[in-house]
Write a sequence for this structure.
């Protein structure tokens, strides 16, 4: 995917050497989240071909949104992909208020009353909102 000249770049950042993700991966077994802790951002991952389904596994809704992904794009991810497994990392409150999911939509992705409470949804909101008694499951 990358030519030899692309694999490594060094730039001066307060005297530190900065490497690309692809170079670091060649030199060691780095996990995506470790690379984020080291300062790599959404743009860095997009440069090596990551798309929204992979990015949602690594970054917060806020960071994805700041990087140009609309909340509508996040909401419209294909429910048949593994990406929806990673939606569980976000609170019910964030999915409801920031992305626009209904409580019923969240139930399709295995959110339950406990998840709602833990995620900041009040009992009053749950009472006032239609929810499934026995939610259907996505395949």
């Amino acid at each position: 995917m990358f030519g030899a000249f692309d694999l490594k770049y060094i730039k001066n950042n307060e005297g530190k050497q900065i490497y690309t993700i692809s170079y670091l991966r060649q030199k060691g077994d780095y996990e995506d989240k470790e690379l984020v802790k080291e300062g790599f951002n959404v743009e860095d991952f997009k440069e090596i071909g990551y798309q929204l389904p992979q990015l949602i596994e690594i970054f917060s809704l806020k960071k994805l949104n700041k990087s140009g992904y609309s909340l509508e794009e996040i909401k419209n991810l294909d429910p048949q992909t593994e990406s929806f497994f990673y939606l569980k990392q976000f609170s019910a409150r964030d999915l409801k208020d920031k992305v626009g999911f209904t409580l019923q939509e969240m139930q399709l992705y295995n959110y339950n009353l406990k998840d709602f409470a833990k995620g900041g949804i009040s009992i009053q909101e749950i009472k006032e909102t239609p929810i499934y008694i026995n939610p259907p499951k996505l395949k």
Summary: Residues 22 and 128 are 49 Å apart (CA to CA). The chain has a mean pLDDT of 77. The chain has two domains: 1-69, 90-139. The two ends are 34 Å apart (CA to CA).
